[in-house]
Amino acid sequence: MKKVLLIVLWVISTGAFAQGIKTPAPSPAQSIKQDFSLSFVEVKYSRPVIKGRKIFGDVVPYGKVWRTGANSPTTITFGEDVKIAGQALKAGTYQLLTIPSQFSWEILFNKGTNGVFNYKPEEDVLKVKLAATALPQSVESFTIHFANVIANKMDMVLSWEKASVSIPVETEIDAKIAASIEKAMTVDSRPYFEAASYYFETGRDLKKALEWVGKAVEANPNAYWILHLQAKIQAKSGDKASAKASAEKSMALAKEGKNEDYVTLNQKLIQSL
After folding, report:
1. What is the pLDDT of residues 190-209, one digit of tens each?
2. pLDDT at position 113, please?
3. In the chain, count of helices (H) and strands (E)?
4. Domains in the chain, ordered, with CATH?
5. How do beta strands 133-147 and 104-110 pair?
6. Residues β-bridged to residue 106
7. Closest CA to 232 of 240, 252, 191
8. Structure confidence by residue, pLDDT tens digits, 103-139
9. For 232-235, which contacts have Cβ atoms below 8 Å and span 24 or more sequence positions?
């Protein structure tokens, strides 16, 4: 009886121990969120690992719909309307599916939610075909990342084994920001510096940018960063004498403020005139 009781206790204890074991996931989940344009892009996916296998053309067959990861469906959320390889896609959350082949991949943005095994082509909202790039070195874990991120453009890159696909993403923000600036200029506290900076950086109306940065300097004459922007706009407008004077004043104030970065920026600007 005592022996039976010990066996029962051992079974119970080992069962409880087994239930409490935690091991690393074979295909760990990852969520990446990128601030982009006036909102964001977020991807949630799992990252399968090669583990000595041949992936494309074998584990992931060519010409068939792939979940673009492992386990749960890979999803992508756009916080605003975008263009994918030049084609319009509305804001929202989609399944990210792919059809790999040796030299190109089809990228599917699908409104379904049940994964690749319940894939319905009629639920594709957008499909684009992009060239695949052969990598010199193998990528062990399937990876999605964002590259070349600027105000209104970036690339979403899918990489695994020795294959990589870059998906161009862009937005139309100029009209939105221009309208926002126009509205902001009707209130008492006007964002002259921000508006001038945007106009300068995007190559818009330099005359208007110069007017706004001048008002920003009037409101804050000791702000060396504003004076530096004024110098850049003056230089781009062809007024080298004014640009040099503004840069020299900005540099002197930056020295007082112990900001060596702006000292260097102004030195380089003066040398370029």
Report:
1. 899 999 998 998 888 999 99
2. 85
3. 7, 10
4. 24-170 (no CATH), 174-272 (1.25.40.10)
5. unpaired
6. 99, 129
7. 240
8. 999 999 999 988 888 999 999 999 999 999 999 999 9
9. 232/200, 232/269, 233/196, 233/200, 233/206, 233/209, 234/210, 235/269, 235/272, 235/273
